[in-house]
């Protein structure tokens, strides 16, 4: 593990449905690229590589659902292995900043806390899938479940004819468990995770994200005042 220790910076975005992750990833990527220092790679899960995008399409159509949460988690893990090996590790080895829309915390929250899969099983799966890879920083975009879900379903209605995907179609109680699960992850791993209030408009959320990134890695955003990060000093 130490011989191929990544030199880049791995930042993941997590949260429930409709929290605005993709907008914020695009904005942070533009900000980081404007710094002109490191290569910036944006990617997503499930997906990110050709093979994993194939899994994504099946997963979001609900192909794995009848097999139960364990089999579904295995399919997310299979997609993740291809993504980590084919895209994330090589980019980190080049020294890139990798911004990833969802990662292993989504398996903990969706298949674990909300889907009912044993956390010990998820931890084992994580260990063998990630082989020590951990995000340097995880930004959890937090929003009340009802508002986020309405946003995601509106967006789905505009962009696709087939209606809500496999997870958007879950009951509100599932999405409330998800929100609690992401907040619990943040509480359990405060050095890695920052909770960002996703309720204000996109500009305010973007500012909060910049502050969090600058507080965590001042070298990435040298012009950014990091003093607004009141809840975590280091
Ligand atoms: P996506 O359209 O990317 O959702 P969002 O825009 O909300 O990020 O679809 C990804 C879906 O897959 C989302 O509902 C979360 C779910 N998911 C899991 O259940 N487990 C996982 O490990 C990952 C990465 C995603």
UniProtKB/TrEMBL annotation:
Give a yes or no for keyword ATP-binding in this entry.
yes
Annotated binding of ATP, by residue: 15-22
Q: Which GO terms describe its biological process?
A: dTDP biosynthetic process; dTTP biosynthetic process; dUDP biosynthetic process
Question: What range(s) does the Thymidylate kinase-like domain occupy?
Answer: 13-209
- List GO molecular-function terms, semicolon-separated: ATP binding; dTMP kinase activity
The keyword Transmembrane helix appears for this protein: no
Catalysed conversion reaction: dTMP + ATP = dTDP + ADP
Point out the signal peptide segment.
none
Gene3D superfamilies from the entry?
Answer: P-loop containing nucleotide triphosphate hydrolases (3.40.50.300)
> What cellular component terms from Gene Ontology apply here?
cytosol
Return the EC number: 2.7.4.9
Q: Which UniProt keywords apply?
A: ATP-binding, Kinase, Nucleotide biosynthesis, Nucleotide-binding, Transferase
Q: Which family does it belong to?
A: Belongs to the thymidylate kinase family.
By its UniProt entry, which NCBIfam families does this protein fall under? DTMP_kinase
- Function of the molecule: Phosphorylation of dTMP to form dTDP in both de novo and salvage pathways of dTTP synthesis.
According to UniProt, the name of this protein is Thymidylate kinase
Q: What organism does the record attribute this protein to?
A: Methylorubrum salsuginis
**Gene behind this chain?**
tmk
